[in-house]
Design a protein that fits this description.
By secondary structure, this protein is α/β, with parallel strands linked by helices. Helices cover 42% and strands 15% of the residues. It is elongated, with a radius of gyration of 25 Å.
């Protein structure tokens, strides 16, 4: 009697070889009743998988890719620490890819990773990325992606984020309660989901305190810190500003530098709050009031979700997404005069 192989099982069940293989591997792509039919026939015919062929099919790189815009930001450094801990526990290597906030570079990295270099991807999108067609190839090749912090809303996959709307609201309310009435909002890109949601919180807080929204107080930053300082100085010179809400870390630092260049006192003339995970935030002059994100936990949670999917051969869905809470840490940069 000839040995039973996948081809024979497929012929007997009138299924494709691929469908039979996936059913035996408990793939989510195959219906439960079909899996049961395949397993029943495999037992009846005493099907034994070819261990060599199976190992080739299931061969993994034991590597994941982490795509981030920068490493100078303390937030991303902490995220990487969280990811690396989980990866090490699962016996995986971590490859870090930097987009430097550039859409073209992000697309090139995605194309490279689509060639099977990694088993899965953890990603925070670049500020210049408004079109995400370059990620479709990864989806077409069933390479699982988990987004964290800066997410692609167009892809139905897991997103691990913080409560950006609530944090934006809380930061703005804090400035209002400190006496500010002309609060500037600084963002790094109008394309990023984090900038949009934090600004929605900012606008809602203004509305709830009967403060009219003024588009002249919105500044979209740049990748150049020097350029950001110039933009903020121009804002402070042309607009009556008594509070600054920096939605990313680098813009908070640029705000300090701009105030220093103009001999403006913090918090006497201008109060500043910003998103920041800088360990030295308390050592700045004056110490920076900050929204501190759970960066390490974000990296750890995103990695746990990805490795669970890889281990169980399960698809990632948006229903698995997580929202973590950030914390407002009050310091002297927003103190009442």
């Amino acid at each position: 009697m000839s040995s039973v192989n996948l081809k024979r099982l497929a012929q007997e069940l009138n299924l494709s070889i691929s469908a039979v293989s996936k059913a035996l591997r408990d793939s989510h792509e195959i219906a439960v009743d079909t899996k049961e039919r395949v397993r029943a026939l495999a037992r009846e015919l005493r099907y034994e998988p070819n261990p060599h062929a199976s190992s080739l099919r299931r061969q993994k790189s034991k590597t994941i890719g982490v795509v981030i815009p920068e490493v100078a930001n303390s937030f991303f450094s902490l995220v990487i620490n969280g990811i690396e801990e989980v990866a090490r526990h699962n016996g995986y290597h971590v490859l870090i890819y930097l987009t430097h906030e550039d859409h073209t570079r992000e697309a090139a990295i995605a194309q490279y990773l689509a060639n099977g270099r990694v088993d899965g991807i953890l990603m925070s999108v670049a500020s210049e990325s408004a079109d995400f067609a370059h990620l479709q190839e990864l989806k077409n090749k069933n390479i699982p992606i988990v987004f964290f912090d800066r997410v692609c809303e167009e892809m139905a996959t897991v997103r691990v984020t913080t409560n950006d709307f609530e944090s934006g609201y809380k930061a703005t309310r804090h400035l209002l309660e400190a006496g500010c009435r002309r609060i500037a909002y600084l963002l790094i890109s109008e394309h990023l989901s984090i900038g949009q949601k934090r600004m929605q919180g900012y606008r809602q807080a203004l509305e709830d305190h009967a403060i009219p929204f003024d588009a002249n107080l919105i500044v979209s930053g740049h990748q150049s810190n020097e350029h950001n300082r110039t933009l903020i100085q121009q804002l402070l010179e042309t607009q009556k500003v008594d509070g600054i809400f920096a939605s990313v870390e680098r813009l908070a630092i640029s705000s300090y530098e701009a105030c220093k260049a103009l001999n403006l006192s913090i918090p006497g003339d201008v109060k500043i709050i910003g998103f920041s995970n800088l360990e030295i935030a308390s050592l700045l002059d004056p110490p920076l009031t900050a929204i501190k994100q759970p960066a390490y936990a974000m990296g750890r949670e995103a990695a746990c979700i990805l490795f669970t999917a890889l281990d169980k051969n399960r698809a990632l869905t948006a229903s698995q997404s997580l929202v973590l809470n950030s914390e407002l840490i009050e310091r002297k940069s927003t103190a009442r005069s």
